[in-house]
Amino acid sequence: MNSCRYCQTKLRHTFVDLGVSPLANAFLGEQELHAMEPFYPLHAYVCSNCFLVQLNQMETPAHIFREYAYFSSYSESWLRHAHDYVEMATKTFKLTGASQVMEIASNDGYLLQYFQAKHIPVVGIEPAANIASQAESKGIPTIVEFFGEQLAAKLVQEGRQADLIVANNVLAHVPDIHDFMKGLKIALKDRGVLTIEFPHLLALMAEKQFDTIYHEHFSYFSLTTVKAILASHGLRLFHVERLQTHGGSLRIFVQHAEDDSRPVHASVSSILAEERNRGINRIETYLRFANEIKQTKMDILRFMIKLHHQGKTVVAYGAPAKGNTLLNYCGIGRDFIPYTVDRNPYKQGLYLPGTRIPILAPDAIRRTQPDYVLILPWNLKEEIMAQHAYIREWGGQFIVMIPQIEVL
């Protein structure tokens, strides 16, 4: 058993044990269906000292992210989120053609394209070469490397220290938190601003979002823990916003500890107080989660078996990492769900890891007219239901499983 990746305390307390599972984005090709598929323990622990929820590292980031299947630009709601952020950041931080914006885990350029349209210089950092090439094709300069202290020092030497650093949904993917934070400290200009978005651990627990736990996510954060991590590296949190993305996220605004140009907003103390009141600093709060998830699994299985016995057909929408955690933990395979669909052509023709459910193009739903469509990326349910409202023509209905089973 490993020690805490932040404070090195021995990990002794289970947050939730989801058995064994393949890597959530390790999709299979036709030729791989007859070969062995590696499964790894999916066991989340909570540190009794700093309360960081985390997985033991089973694979290196280089193995996990060398070729990645998640392209941000296939979600219309996420593109709107990115556009709105750029409008806010440009105005709030008075960004101009003389500014430098850096995004870590810039994916396919989904966000930087909006800064670029305003003629604000950008640079993306994206370790997955297949995704970075999509950004490059849009004319967005992208460095195909993992971000950390070494790369940050190199960027500073090249004169590319940032006025604004954007880090959306990357913090969970970082196995070496200290190296990452050191890099942020180096790469940020003296009066620069760093914004980080991450799923809020409180929302994960309250909404029973166990499916957001998978091997590519090494850590799960409360604001309390993130604030302490930032402070230990000379970075100060000065504002927090609540977001609806990913089932409930936080966007934090950070500056150098030496920079007193921006006062600390009341939002920081407000959310920290909420976390204290909900027991974020008590180990007992975390230990209740595992039993709640066992019950959720039983409820999901009973529901799927009931539909099966009624002769109802259920297909899935999406091939997100969270969906693969849910299906593998609950043991739901092709006997319950004959196929799933996804808008991303990179995934079409492949098979989900573990369950080996085939991934088809979305028009398969209209052809087969299932009774139910299970939305695996439940955080995008409104967007997906609007795009596929035609299933009502034959009486079809949508299902989500998290935070509880709903027929929509």
TrEMBL record:
Q: Name one GO biological process term.
A: methylation
Gene3D superfamilies recorded = 6.10.250.3100, Methyltransferase, zinc-binding domain, NAD(P)-binding Rossmann-like Domain, Vaccinia Virus protein VP39
UniProt KW keywords: Methyltransferase, Transferase
The family database entries (InterPro entries) matched by this protein are listed as: Methyltransf_Zn-bd_dom_put, Methyltransf_Zn-bd_dom_put_sf, MeTrfase_14, SAM-dependent_MTases_sf
> Transferase: is it a keyword of this entry?
yes
A molecular-function term among this protein's GO annotations:
methyltransferase activity
Question: Domain Methyltransferase putative zinc binding, which positions?
Answer: 4-65
Name all C-methyltransferase domain ranges.
245-403
| Protein name, entry field | Methyltransferase domain-containing protein
Q: Which organism is it from?
A: Paenibacillus aurantiacus
